[in-house]
Every structure is written in C-alpha cells, then in structure tokens.
C-alpha cells in the first residue's frame, strides 16, 4: 500500500478562521503542543456530505479545551460552520473531519498561559477503520500493556492528545503480534476500552458496557446505547472484569471511525458476530444517514 502523507494533499484546511491551501496549513516546530501535548481534538463522521452530530462534537472540543485550561477563540456555532465549509470545499461525501486546537509558540516551558490558541479543521475521505472485512468476520484484540489512568492522575474527561500516547504504543504492539487492536484495562484492572473506541459485550441478551469514569463517554457510544434501548434491549453500565470476557456471547467496539465493529477474538477468547451486533450495525448505519 502506498501511503499518501497527510501534509502533501490537495484541498483546503480551515486554519485560525480562514481556509488555506492544504500544504500551507503548518505550525512552528516550537509550538507548545508539540512539546507538552497541550492540544485537544475531535473526530467526526461525514455521511452524504453531512457531519453526524456536529454540534455535540464542537461542544466537546470546547469542553476538552476547558479541562486543559484554555479557551477556544471560536464559538460552537462558528466551529460548526467551519466544519461544514471544509467538508463542502473539499467535496467530501463520505469521510472524516478532524478539528484540533492547540497552544502556539509564544512560550516554551511547562507554564504557557500566554500562548495563542490555534484551531484547524481538516476533512478527507476515509474508508472503514478496520477494513470492510471486519464487519463480517470481526477483529482480533490483544490485551494492552498500558492501562487507562485514574482521573486523579490525568485529565481523562477530555479528548486530549497526550492521553493517546499509550494508545499508539498499545496498538503498535498489538499489530506487531498479528492483532487489529488492543483492549485496555483501567488502573484498577477493569475493562476500559480499546485504543480508540468504546467497548460493549452481550450476555444473555443484555448489553453491558464499562462505566466511563476514566475514559471518554463517546458520542457513538451514547448513540448505540440509545439504539439498543429503542429496541427494548436492556443496557447496563457497570464495572466489567477481564474474567467476564469468557462468558460474553458477543462483543463489539463503537466510535466515530470504528462505527460498530464486531470483535472475533480477545486474547484467548473467541466470539461469533452475533445477531444483536448485526442489528446495531444496521441501526447505526441508518441513523447516521437519517
């Protein structure tokens, strides 16, 4: 597969209030965010040229920035309009939108209250995150070496760039071992999430998902819970221990990129792509294209 670098593409990117040619959307090497991870971001799905639950994503970007101690210099409505403009100008019918906000280069130290806050929004076509075959056969997960941190040790309520360092390490290790992704536990040893998607399992017709007290309560996660409830499926948010995975009938992930992706294997445990997973995959596909 030939990689197309993300800094060398055609199109436009919204950068600090204006559209720029894609290749001109750059930042300085001494930007605070590059050195100290003072950045937050979003991932948004585009279906039929429209961004699904756009305002929820723009609102969460503001919330994440607030958790990291800075204010985004554009309102939620302005971010919504900018995202829509980027999608339209780049002719994206089915794809992905990435808004990101970060501290600039005015200060280079841990303390950086006087840095300028920059915002950029890009959009591009993006195929299925785990590949089309994953929807029928499911994906394989290893157990991650790293654990999701306690909210007392990291700003776990934000979609902050720095929180994904251990996700990258865990996913790289899993892929090197022949897996598609990694299942992360939390600092207590409970099931948390995959490296970029929320976790669900089915037991005796009931849907179970970990309580999001140290990781993001994903927008897709909440959507799928709503779809399950609309079908009368009982959904329980609770602490899930790793040894319970052996009793699961079905397991799947949810996320903007993952959508609803079935899991066929977690370490020594094997699963079939079950009927509830298929139903929720279909319901979600209809929902986003509503």
Topology:
Layout: E1 12-15, E2 18-21, H1 32-36, E3 39-41, E4 44-47, E5 50-51, H2 54-67, H3 76-89, E6 95-103, E7 117-124, H4 134-137, E8 139-143, H5 165-176, E9 181-185, E10 191-194, E11 198-203, E12 206-210, H6 219-230, E13 235-238, E14 250-255, E15 259-266, E16 269-270, H7 275-288
Parallel strand pairs: 8-9, 8-15, 12-13
Antiparallel strand pairs: 1-2, 1-7, 3-6, 4-5, 4-6, 6-7, 9-10, 11-12, 11-14, 14-15, 15-16
Helix pairs in contact: 2-3
Key structural traits:
290 residues; alpha+beta; D-amino Acid Aminotransferase, Chain A, domain 1; D-amino Acid Aminotransferase, Chain A, domain 2; 9-stranded mixed β-sheet; 7-stranded antiparallel β-sheet; 16 strands; globular
